[in-house]
């Protein structure tokens, strides 16, 4: 199959050589691979963006999951921000609250757009809608934010993994945060190379993160990990825009993430058998939610 | 490359909470339904690895049943799939397995009714993407790097040529193809990996060919 890029190095080189945005390279590749028109592809991404907007809106009104483990934190964060005493700053907290809002909706079996997965669906929209208030992008630039995220996610998915069961949380929230970071750079007017630096800095700081969901639910600690993924993304983007670079190239960080995932014991890869899931409280919550029975059957 | 489209990464639009364990599970169920060709009367669903450990928390069970009822990943009815199944008279049973499998998110779905039975194995590889790895005991050896279709047919001469001709007509190049059958004259199948996406129109035309029982996309 002919593709325009197989790794981040090729993606950045192509964008810089042709003087194009990373989002543009992603759109061109999508047209090439799927034989679809630009309008068609842009429209589908526009619809995905709408789903993200609706999920954040719903989450900010306050939702609760069936288990009762998560919900309502996005509302708490927004109220706290409005009091004007936040320490970490409004943009950062806004990103965090909107990431949380999305994942609270996801945990409540609401409709979301996976970016790259459902468990990590909060980071990309959370950062997008927070940065939006500062940068005032056009609708097209917001859609491009998703293509830039997608371009980096495409590399990770094909060269490493975006599955918690295969590579731990680093593969999900780690990838999502790094993707968001790269997309923030493009929206803020940074270079493709800076996107790559931001991606590398973010993912480096998420390496080793295990997937240890309490009771196997995409709630604890998933929702708050999206919050931290979002803040990681924003801070790393600022670092890269300031001129900070990663000593380890982006593609090598992705390879490292893959290797770490491969070496991770299965207890830490979405089996709910290790880490936070195996703590006394984690176990207690599990038995409270599911009782003794784990076998279900109909009729 | 297993992930080909940007919408594999930014998407699918889906009912939470997990792309691999909910959306992927729904897709596996829906492919089984598609291959069976109608709503089954009963389903026995064997879950392996992470699927077996966490299926309740991720609503994997509800999603697979939803898929068997032909619901897409974003169909709100997934949430009430158990009730819907009961209303429609489809019984289901989940069997968490402890055996080792190649992929952590594996499901074996055995479905049937008074007329026939079918068994299918699928894996959920992340972000909602799935692969079908086995049908009725036939291993489907896919590279996973290209779009692929599965053609179930009666073991008669000319079937393979007809399918190849039809794909040729739409300028679809076959990259890899495997044919197998249980017994001479019995059920047979073709697994065809192609370089281009096979759209609805082509799928429809393939289904109309003589002696073809079912045509399904097993990798996009």
From TrEMBL, chain A:
Its EC number is 4.3.1.17. The keyword 4Fe-4S applies. GO terms for molecular function: 4 iron, 4 sulfur cluster binding; L-serine ammonia-lyase activity; metal ion binding. Its cofactor is [4Fe-4S] cluster. InterPro entries: Fe-S_L-Ser, Ser_deHydtase-like_asu, Ser_deHydtase_asu. It catalyses: L-serine = pyruvate + NH4(+). It is an enzyme of class 4 (lyase). The keyword Iron-sulfur applies. Keywords: 4Fe-4S, Gluconeogenesis, Iron, Iron-sulfur, Lyase, Metal-binding. One of its GO terms (biological process) is gluconeogenesis. It comes from the Bacteria. Pathway: Carbohydrate biosynthesis; gluconeogenesis. Pfam families: SDH_alpha. Belongs to the iron-sulfur dependent L-serine dehydratase family. This is L-serine dehydratase. It comes from Planococcus maritimus.
From TrEMBL, chain B:
PROSITE patterns: ACT. This is L-serine deaminase. GO terms for molecular function: 4 iron, 4 sulfur cluster binding; L-serine ammonia-lyase activity; metal ion binding. Keywords: 4Fe-4S, Gluconeogenesis, Iron, Iron-sulfur, Lyase, Metal-binding. CDD domains: ACT_LSD. Belongs to the iron-sulfur dependent L-serine dehydratase family. It catalyses: L-serine = pyruvate + NH4(+). Pfam families: ACT, SDH_beta. It comes from the Bacteria. One of its GO terms (biological process) is gluconeogenesis. Residues 148-220 form the ACT domain. Pathway: Carbohydrate biosynthesis; gluconeogenesis. The keyword Transmembrane does not apply. Its cofactor is [4Fe-4S] cluster.
């Amino acid at each position: 199959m002919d593709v325009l890029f197989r790794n981040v190095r090729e993606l950045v080189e192509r964008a810089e050589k042709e003087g194009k945005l990373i989002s543009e390279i992603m759109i061109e590749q999508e047209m090439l691979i799927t034989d679809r028109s630009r309008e068609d592809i842009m429209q589908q991404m526009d619809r995905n963006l709408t789903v993200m907007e609706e999920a954040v809106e719903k989450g900010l009104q306050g939702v609760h999951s069936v288990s009762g483990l998560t919900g309502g934190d996005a509302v708490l964060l927004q109220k706290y921000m409005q009091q004007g005493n936040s320490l970490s700053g409004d943009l950062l907290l806004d990103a965090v609250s909107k990431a949380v809002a999305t994942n609270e909706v996801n945990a409540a079996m609401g409709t979301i757009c996976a970016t790259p997965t459902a468990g990590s669906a909060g980071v990309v929209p959370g950062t997008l809608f927070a940065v939006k208030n500062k940068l005032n992008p056009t609708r097209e630039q917001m859609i491009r934010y998703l293509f830039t995220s997608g371009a980096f996610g495409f590399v990770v998915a094909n060269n490493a993994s975006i599955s918690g069961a295969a590579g731990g949380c680093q593969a999900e929230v780690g990838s999502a945060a790094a993707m968001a970071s790269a997309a923030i750079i493009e929206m803020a007017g940074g270079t493709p190379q800076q996107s790559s630096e931001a991606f590398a800095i973010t993912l480096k700081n998420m390496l080793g993160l295990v997937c240890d969901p309490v009771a196997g639910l995409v709630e604890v600690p998933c929702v708050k990990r999206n919050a931290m993924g979002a803040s990681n993304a924003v801070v790393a983007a600022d670092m890269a825009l300031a001129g900070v670079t990663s000593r380890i190239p982006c593609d090598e960080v992705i390879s490292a993430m893959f290797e770490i995932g491969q070496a991770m014991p299965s207890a830490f890869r979405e089996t709910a058998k290790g880490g936070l899931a195996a703590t006394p409280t984690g176990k207690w919550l599990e038995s409270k939610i599911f009782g003794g029975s784990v076998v279900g059957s109909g009729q | 490359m297993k992930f080909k489209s940007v919408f594999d990464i930014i998407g699918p639009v889906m009912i939470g909470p997990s792309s691999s364990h909910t959306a992927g599970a729904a897709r596996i169920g829906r492919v089984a339904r598609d291959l069976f060709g109608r709503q089954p009367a009963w389903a026995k669903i064997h879950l392996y690895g992470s699927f077996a450990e966490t299926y309740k928390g991720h609503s994997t069970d509800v999603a697979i049943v939803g898929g068997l009822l032909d619901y897409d990943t974003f169909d709100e009815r997934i949430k009430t799939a158990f009730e819907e199944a009961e209303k429609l008279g489809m019984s289901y049973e989940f069997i968490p397995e402890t055996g080792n499998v190649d992929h952590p998110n594996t499901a074996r779905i055995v479905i049937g009714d008074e007329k026939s039975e079918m068994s299918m194995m699928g894996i959920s590889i992340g972000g909602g993407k799935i692969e079908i790895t086995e049908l009725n005991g036939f291993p489907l050896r896919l590279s996973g790097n290209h779009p692929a279709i599965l053609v179930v047919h009666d073991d008669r001469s000319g079937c393979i040529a007809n399918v190849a001709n039809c794909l040729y007509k739409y300028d679809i190049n076959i990259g890899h193809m495997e044919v197998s059958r249980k017994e001479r004259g019995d059920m047979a199948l073709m697994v065809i990996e192609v370089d281009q996406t096979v759209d609805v129109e082509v799928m429809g035309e393939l289904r109309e060919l003589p002696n073809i029982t079912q045509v399904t996309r097993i990798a996009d």
